[in-house]
Amino acid sequence: MYAVVETGGKQYRVTEGDTLFVEKLDVTEGDQVVLDRVLLVSKDGEVKVGTPYVEGAKVVAQAVKQGKGKKIIVFKYRAKKNYRKKRGHRQPYTKLEIKAIQA
Prior knowledge:
The chain is mainly beta. It has one domain. It has strands at about 1-5, 10-15, 20-25, 30-35, 40-45, 45-50, 60-70, 70-80, 85-90, 90-100. The strands form 3 sheets. The protein has a 4-stranded antiparallel beta sheet, with no helix packed on it. A 4-stranded antiparallel beta sheet has the order 3-10-7-4, with no helix packed on it. It has a two-stranded antiparallel sheet with strand order 8-9. Strand 5 (about 40-45) and strand 6 form a beta hairpin. The N and C termini lie close together (about 10 Å). The model has no long low-confidence stretch (mean pLDDT about 95).
């Protein structure tokens, strides 16, 4: 059994027991998170596709960790104009563990 859920403007294919990194959610570590934007559910070979979401379907997850990703360097440069900007960025994330898929 698997589902496709939408969160943070992205879509993820999840099964029970999966861990995934999503855009930062406003929850504390250990809290339960209900993802109700379920786009597709596959159970016993039967596939349900929502328009746009599957009615009554939800995915229950637990917030394991809040963190920041690896640092990336953003460097802007214009040739021959003495223009340089160097910035660093660390994207915040929430690590989720999928507990149940209810459909």
